[in-house]
Write a structure and sequence with these properties.
The protein has eleven helices and eleven strands. The strands form four sheets. The protein has a five-stranded antiparallel beta sheet with strand order 5-6-9-10-11. The chain is extended and about 85 Å long.
């Protein structure tokens, strides 16, 4: 990480002017941008070097009925149909018509898996009360129970049956609530996308549950008196609510920590790359956790495209007017978190705070556009000491 100079560190112990504070904030953010973007570029390069992207392209070509051979010989589809190629080929020109046998097989498997895992007329999950041995034993206990004032409350069996019935009713109510939320978020449709990706490319990823904002518009009638006459007008009422949702994510847009090997849980985080328009980018400025000044800075720049060419990161201007937005979910290094906190505290006027212990773990979400952090939100910490501290804007 780019360290601050000694003069800058000494200047932090004194009260700075507004201009000096603005310069210091810009330097802090530049150091943080450089650290985060270099890590992202390393992860993007590592995935390109792993060879998994070549396997995905071959699987995509197979599904589309294309020849995936690299030496000009028989493709994998022909090998599946007719076996390995013979050493000698008959002379003469033969038909080169190819029948796609991979796509129907994949589609049939996807349909069968969806039929088993996602039934149309039933749910593939349910909620039941957790078995409690004490309650089960009390169902056969006929002893009377009284409160502290001596009033008779019933027998142990009656109280146990009442508690069990209350738990069952609560489970049914929660099951209906969850079922409504899954229906609104089109959960079964997203699961079908995941199954299709797993059958076609070998891996499927589901993101969630995360919170989405939903606007409900309802028309309500209102009576008004105009010129002594009663007039009924329709007034639109807009209510806002938050609900959980889950989405199937294209695996080609995910870049996990390369040190995780074959176990994703070993990695410290994951990057997700998506495309966003200028209109959507402006809308982010109104959401909590996003920095309007940083978004304003990005909108003044041309969209930056991050790609890998010859195992090197190539950053060029995108041909269209779509920005690449990178979402990082995972642990944030203590040094990076300290820079975020210094910038946040400088704005709030809360001072620099205490030094961060390297043993502490900080998890959060960083939103990056054009190598500029436009949003930062904390998720959780290992010791829950910062659960109420907003490590962003």
């Amino acid at each position: 990480m780019a360290d601050l100079s000694q003069n800058q560190m000494m200047a932090q112990t004194y009260e700075l002017s507004e201009d000096d504070a603005a310069i210091l904030q810009e330097q802090l953010l530049s150091s943080l941008y450089q650290e985060i973007s270099s890590e992202r570029d390393e992860w993007v390069r590592a995935r390109a070097q792993s060879g998994i992207e070549t396997d995905w392209r071959k699987a995509e070509a197979l599904y589309d009925g294309e020849d995936v051979s690299e030496d000009g010989g028989m493709g994998l589809e022909d090998s599946l149909r007719n076996g390995p190629a013979s050493r000698s080929r008959p002379a003469g020109n033969r038909s080169r018509v190819r029948i796609n046998i991979v796509a129907p097989a994949v589609d049939n498997q996807v349909a069968r898996m969806c039929e088993i895992l996602l039934p149309v007329d039933d749910k593939n999950w349910g909620i039941r009360p957790t078995p409690n041995p004490a309650v089960s034993k009390a169902l056969t206990d006929g002893r009377a129970v009284q409160d502290v004032q001596g009033y008779h409350l019933g027998t142990m069996a009656e109280l146990a049956a009442s508690a069990q019935n209350t738990a069952q009713l609560a489970c049914k109510a929660m099951e209906r609530e969850i079922d409504d939320q899954l229906t609104e978020s089109q959960y079964n449709g997203e699961c079908r996308k995941l199954i299709f990706s797993a059958a076609k490319l070998g891996t499927g990823v589901m993101k969630g549950p995360f919170v989405v904002r939903i606007e409900e518009r309802n028309w309500m009638s209102a009576n008004q008196q105009i010129g002594g006459m009663a007039v009924v007008n329709a007034v639109m009422s807009i209510t806002e609510k938050f609900a959980p949702a889950s989405r199937a994510v294209d695996i080609r847009s995910l870049y996990p920590d390369p040190s995780c090997s074959d176990d994703i849980q070993r990695g410290k985080g994951i990057y997700e790359c998506k495309e966003i328009t200028r209109k959507e980018l402006r809308a982010l400025a109104k959401r909590p956790g996003y920095d309007p000044d940083a978004i304003r800075k990005v909108l003044k720049q041309k969209p930056l495209l991050v790609d890998v060419n010859d195992n090197k990161i190539d950053k060029s201007q995108a041909r269209d007017d779509l920005y690449q937005i990178w979402e990082y979910h995972g642990e944030v290094e203590p040094e990076s978190f300290q820079l975020l906190r210094k910038y946040t505290n400088r704005i709030a006027g809360d001072g620099e705070g205490e030094d961060i212990d390297p043993l502490q773990s900080f998890a959060g979400c960083l939103i990056i556009v054009n190598d500029v952090i436009v949003g930062a939100l904390p998720m959780m910490t290992a010791d829950n000491s910062l659960e109420n501290h907003q490590a962003g804007w």
